[in-house]
What does this fold into?
Amino acid sequence: MALAKMSVAEVEQFLRDEFPQAFSGDDITIESADGQTCLLRQRYSERMLRPGGTVSGPTLMTLADFAMYVVLLSAIGPIGLAVTTNLNINFLRKGQPGQDVLAEARLLKLGKRLAVGEVKLLSGSSPDPIAHVTSTYSIPNV
It folds into this structure.
């Protein structure tokens, strides 16, 4: 795959301008993005929890989808209309309350019209993933 077409700062500015409903606060930060991989951090908040004190599925799915969007933007540039066509998630273990959630995304295949990737979700500093995600994005003709 080619080098990144957008830096972290450029992706962040694009998201603030074009997608503020998803990237207007400071709860999610993009720690790295290089056109092939990215690392996002969602700061812990009690809003992330479901009954029973575990990080909720919707929180994890949203972060994983957002991580795929970020790694894709870093690879293809500012194409806002790239959309998720498939997302599959396997919940592996409980996300711990009080811990940030990290999303490590990587592109597996980048074509002209489709991109396929995977995301590993981690709780705090534990190396054991709490969820594994595969996702496909549709890339519009530009």
About this structure: The mean pLDDT is 94.
